[in-house]
Structure formats: C-alpha cells, structure tokens
Amino acid sequence: MKKKAPRGGRRAVKRVRAARTAPVALLAAALRAQSEGVFIAERKCGPQGVRIVFANESFCTMTGHGTADLVHRAHGFLHLERADLERLRHWLPKAKPGQPLVGEGFLRRADGSSIAAAWSFDLLGNGRSRATHIVATYRDLTEKRRLQEALVHSQRLDAVGRLAGGVAHDFNNLLSVINGYCEMLAAHVAANPQAMREVAEIHHAGRKAAALTQQLLAFSRRQPLNARVIRLNELVTSNVEIMRRLVGDAGKIEIELDPGLANVRTDPAQFQQVVLNLVLNARDALRDRGRIVITTANREIAPALHRRQTDTPPGRYVAISVADNGTGMDAETQKHLFEPFFTTKPEGKGTGLGLALVYGVVQQSGGFIAVRSALLVGTTVEILLPAVNEAVEEPPATVAPLPTTRGTETVLLVEDDEVVRKMVAGILTADGYRVIAAATAGAALRDLRDLTRPVQLLIANLAGDGGKFARRLGRTHPDLRVLCTGPADVGNPGWLAPARLVRLSKPYALSELLKTARKLLDA
Length: 523
Prior knowledge:
The protein has 523 residues and is α/β, with parallel strands linked by helices. It has 15 helices and 17 strands.
C-alpha cells in the first residue's frame, strides 16, 4: 500500500513547483509588456525566414497583424528587402550569444503601408548552452525619420534663404541704378515720344525685377515688414471680389469666417499677397466642379501638445486655411514646395517664388505653415499667426507730396556701391543740396576734417560699423538726421530720437528718396 506524503511535505512540493514556474510566468509577462515589438522564432532559417512561435502585443500593433497571423509563419513576409533575409542566413551559422545581428529597413504592414524600423536578432538558449531559438526586437523609426527629414528640410530652406537674401541685396543695388537713371533720363527725353516710350519700358522691366527681389527678400526674412495689428477677417472679405475674379470659371470660392476671431500682427499688404498666392495655386490645381474654401478660426495649442522641437509652440493662434479639391501633390513635390524657383507649372507660366514669398512672410510674422495634400483629393494650406490682445491699428495717413524738394542743407552719403553712390549724389546735388559722398565710414571721416558747415542729414547703412560712425557723427552734429538704407532688422539706435530716423529700403525710387529726405529734414 502506497503511503501518502505528509501534509507538510505536499505543501513543500507545491512551493518548489511554484518557485520554478514563477520566473517563467514573469518572463512571459515582461515580454508581453515590452513597448518595443518582440517575437521569438525557431533558429532554423528557411527560404522565407525564421518561423515565429511567439509575438508580443507591441509587435502585433506595429505590423498590424494579429497573433494568429504571425505565429507559425516565417517572418520574411514582413520585410520589404530580400537582403534582410540574406544577412540573417549568413549570420546564423556563426552566430554566438551576445553578438546580435542589428539592422534597419522597412516593414510591410497588414494594410499595405510601410514603416521604418530598426531590429536586433539574438540567440536564445534552452539552459544547456545550446541555442534553439532566436529573440528579435523591433523598434518603429517612422516618426524619428519624419522629424529628421523635417529638420533637414528646415535647414535646407534656411540655407537657400541666406543665399537668396545675399543675391537679392546685391541685385537691389543694380536695380536702384537702373531705375534711378531711368527717372533721370526721362526728364531729358520728355520731348521725344519714341525715346520716352523706350525709357518707360526699361523702367517697367526694372520695377518688375525689383518686385522679384522683394519676394526673395521676403523668403529670406530680410524684407522689411510694415507690421500692425489687423483683423484677418476684414482682410479676407475686402479681397473676396478680387479672388473671385482670379478664380473665374475654374471653380467657386466659399468663405467660412469665425466671427469671434482674435486680432493678429502682420503686414497687411504682404499678407494680402500671401492669401492671393494661395488662392492662385489652388485655382491652378482645380478640376471639374472645383471648389476653394477659405476658413478662419481661433486655435489654442496646449503645452501637452508641444513634445518635439518641430511642434508648434503652445499658445493662442489665429488659423487661416485655403483648401481645394484639386489634383493634389505627391510627397516629393511637397518636400520642395517652399523652395525659391521650384514650380510644377509649365515653363514661362510661373517664377516659383509665390510660395517662397508665403513662407517668408509667415515666418517674419512669427507664424507657422503646414500643408496637407493627396493626389486627386486636394490640398489644404494652413497658416497659424500668434493672436494678440491689442486693438486694431489704423493705417498711417499717406503723406501729401511736397510742392518742391529743393534744399540747401549738407548731406553726407555713405554708400559702398560706386554706381549707386554717384547716382544718389548726383540727384541730391541737382536738387540743391551740398553732398559729401564716401564709400566707407573711414573715408567719410577724412572728408569731414576740412568741413566748416554742420551735417544735417546722413544717408547710410547702420549695420555693423555704420551705427558706430553715425553715433560718433551725432556727437559733433547735434541736429543730425539719419536716413537708413540698410536691412530692416537693424534696431533703432538708442541715442537717436525716433523722429530723426527714417528707413528707406533698396531699391528705392529717386523721387521717394528726395521726398523722404525733405520730410526728415523738415521734421
């Protein structure tokens, strides 16, 4: 007769069995709880890869396949590149514990889409120093790659912007000369209609070229903004008729404006160009029964939504979007969308600067721009501008033209471009001013040594040494006024009263220069 084990003995056996099975259960639970995708497969590798015997929930979520679809199936069907399987076959015969096979590539999800992933294959033993299985760990890199591409794209746009800004700055000097001498020449050929028409054509081409350089400067964020607080809804409604004429029979425009929209600060003239450019692009993409929808709304970005460097910073924004149901764009086109001179239009139909202007104005206004597009579905361009609590600023009153700009004051002109310097000095001298023209601040100091009369007006670029020179000149000439021809981002000198400083960006018309100088001297 078989003896029964003592009750205490049975309990001890149960405790030993539980102690042996507890680590196994904990390990299984740990694998299931992993945030990264994990599967365990047999070591033997067939033509289609290694056969999966276990897959955790994270791996199922990553690939879109359920556990039943993965277990007992070779893993190779998930990999887009056959080279991934070849590397695994070469690694397995000489694989050793602690020497994993790592790689990166693309996986095919159950819905047909692909994701970027990094993986690691390690040998898994059975406790007797014999590796019978493989444990594979997968990490989804899709979002990381998207952020890297966004960063590279932003850096590329910044580099192109710096190049475009430098080219536009030098080109503006040439255009100032072309347009300035056209104005001077027109006075001499006024009695000759044929010559007058030819000069007018040159001047017209010069003004068009100047407009292109302004767009380049806007893209590079070096275009001066005449920013003030405005109501965005009013800007849209005041341009509805223009937009309808632009679209014509290509489609219809619908306006959906939030009546409680907050105010924003931007340059109304340049933001008008932003809206019109977006509408024109939408019109060109329309098909039959085309439709363009312009929408405004208040938007608040919560701090919790700002987790990555490329996310929009938290705060209150005003959103304006232009959406169409046109042909849409593929991913490659969207990568180059805001680059200057990039266009999908036929040759001669577009300069490729429209969206570059949009990008620059939005950036200078402290805003953000996003594009969503799909082929044969349409495109939506959304702009976010920071909301402000300030009241709307009325546009400054236009200055009535003076009956005469003739003056007798002493003007110091510091201009490094020789042709511009000669032209400006010539027109000021012809208008009665006494002009001292110099290429640099150092040369101007030498020219001032023998001067007995005070300098009433300085025309110069205040960037770099120009600001120091202007301050030094202001100490010895207390009534000095300054007409700054440099970049708009150069701050107002603290020692100079705001009423004594005016900015005039290149390329400027000579008539504008004369009126501005006269107004500044009379202030």
